[in-house]
Structures are given as structure tokens and as C-alpha cells.
């Protein structure tokens, strides 16, 4: 069993895609074990994207995630990290295959609708950041 993090970014929330994304996660047989809608602080977003600090897109991606409400989802299941990454599709939506969230609903890397943890270690770190109160 693995637990991983999905963030529905401001673009996904404003396009009312929360339900569609949660539906796909559950239809796949994965369990939602944490769920919250929030307006994230700059501090938590900078910490979340710490590995990208110093890269050209860091400020843009931080500003973007802080620009509106997001939905944080903790997802548990067998091989959840890989399963979720595959369901979301390639980071660049132009390379995401149809049938993935990005392949079906996104066009640009700056507005790629979701974030998902890259590996189990990242998932543990990110879940502790977004769900410090713990999961059900
Ligand atoms: P995400 O999975 O949230 O992780 C970092 C985000 O930065 C990524 O999705 C994209 O939305 C954004 N981004 C912008 N430019 C790039 C890039 N060149 N490489 C990776 N991520 C990028």
C-alpha cells in the first residue's frame, strides 16, 4: 500500500474539474484518505516546490499555485504513486496521452491542472506538509 498526494491547481478548481478528477481516482480503485479545499500560503507552496528553487520557472509556478483555491487529496492504494502519475499524464500536456487528466483537459505546462508526488519519498514529505494533522 502506498499513499500519495494530488493537488488540483487553481486552473482545475476554477474549471470545476474537482469532481472529474476525484471520480477518476475512485473509479481506478484508489481510496481518498484526505481531502481539503484551501487557499495556500506562499510559505507552504515554496516548501512544496523546494526542489525547483533556483529554476527559471520557480517564481511562476509558486505564484500560480498561490493565485486561487486548490484541492489537496491524499490517495491510498496499491502502487498509488505510479498509478496516479500515469493517470495525470506527462507534466507537459502536449506530451500527455489522451485518457489522462492532462491529455484530456490541459494544453500548457503552466496550467497542467494537477500536481502529483513523483516517488514514495516525495509523497511522504508532501503529505506531511499538506496534511500535518494526519490522514484518516
Ligand atoms: P508540477 O508537477 O506541479 O511540478 C512543478 C511544476 O512546474 C510543473 O508541474 C509545471 O506546472 C511547472 N513547470 C513549468 N515549467 C516547467 C518545466 N520546464 N519543467 C517542469 N515543470 C515546469
Question: Would you write up a description of this structure?
Answer:
By secondary structure, the chain is α+β, with helices and mostly antiparallel strands. It has a single domain (2-130), classed as Nucleoside diphosphate kinase-like domain (Alpha-Beta Plaits), CATH 3.30.70.141. It contains 7 helices and 4 strands, in the order βααβααβααβα. The protein has helices at 10-14, 18-27, 42-48, 58-65, 80-88, 101-105, 120-130, and strands at 2-8, 31-38, 70-77, 114-116. A 4-stranded antiparallel beta sheet has the order 2-3-1-4, with helices on both faces. It is globular, with a radius of gyration of 14 Å. The mean pLDDT is 98. Residues 52, 57, 61, 91, 109-110, 112, 115 line the site of adenosine-3',5'-cyclic-monophosphate.
Tags for this entry?
136 residues; alpha+beta; Alpha-Beta Plaits; globular; binds adenosine-3',5'-cyclic-monophosphate
Give the topology.
Layout: E1 2-8, H1 10-14, H2 18-27, E2 31-38, H3 42-48, H4 58-65, E3 70-77, H5 80-88, H6 101-105, E4 114-116, H7 120-130
Antiparallel strand pairs: 1-3, 1-4, 2-3
Briefly summarize what is shown.
By secondary structure, this protein is α+β, with helices and mostly antiparallel strands. The protein is 40% helix and 19% strand. It has one domain: Alpha-Beta Plaits (2-Layer Sandwich), CATH 3.30.70.
Amino acid at each position: 500500500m502506498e499513499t500519495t498526494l494530488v493537488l488540483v491547481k487553481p486552473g482545475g478548481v476554477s474549471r470545476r474539474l474537482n469532481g472529474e478528477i476525484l471520480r477518476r481516482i475512485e473509479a481506478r480503485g484508489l481510496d481518498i484518505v484526505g481531502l481539503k479545499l484551501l487557499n495556500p500560503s506562499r510559505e507552504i507552496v515554496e516548501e512544496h516546490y523546494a526542489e525547483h528553487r533556483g529554476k527559471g520557472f520557480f517564481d511562476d509556478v509558486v505564484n500560480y499555485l498561490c493565485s486561487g483555491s486548490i484541492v489537496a487529496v491524499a490517495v491510498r492504494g496499491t502502487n498509488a504513486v505510479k498509478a496516479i502519475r500515469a493517470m495525470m499524464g506527462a507534466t507537459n500536456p502536449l506530451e500527455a496521452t489522451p485518457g489522462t487528466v492532462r491529455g484530456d483537459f490541459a494544453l500548457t505546462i503552466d496550467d497542467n491542472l494537477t500536481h502529483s508526488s513523483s516517488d514514495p519519498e516525495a509523497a511522504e514529505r508532501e503529505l506531511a506538509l499538506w496534511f500535518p494533522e494526519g490522514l484518516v
